[in-house]
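stage 2 :: seqdesign
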């Protein structure tokens, strides 16, 4: 799977969140739930942002936020970090609603 990680984002992931490119890729590959749409106005960009929570091969839970580059037909990662309890609860609620 091709995932776009720009150098500035990679630097932020590594230095601010302690997340590697390999972990982001593993989170994408290990994802089992559906995607959530970013609806908070302060977190919306010009692209339609999606997010999910998944685990790395080592069991580390990550929230990954991205948009799809239509020209490249690939996800562009905006950020990835360990989610807080509110984010986990929201994602679980979204998953339950989509199962109905």
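stage 2 :: out
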């Amino acid at each position: 799977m091709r995932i776009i990680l720009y150098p500035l984002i990679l630097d932020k992931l590594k230095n601010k969140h302690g997340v590697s490119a390999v972990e982001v890729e593993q989170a994408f590959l290990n994802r089992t739930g559906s995607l959530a749409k970013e609806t908070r106005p302060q977190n919306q960009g010009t692209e339609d942002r999606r997010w999910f929570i998944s685990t790395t091969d080592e069991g580390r839970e990550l929230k990954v936020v991205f948009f799809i580059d239509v020209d490249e037909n690939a996800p562009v990662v905006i950020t990835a970090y360990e989610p807080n309890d509110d984010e986990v609860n929201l994602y679980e609620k979204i998953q339950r609603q989509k199962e109905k």
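stage 3 :: structure notes
- The longest helix spans residues 85-99.
- The two ends are 29 Å apart (CA to CA).
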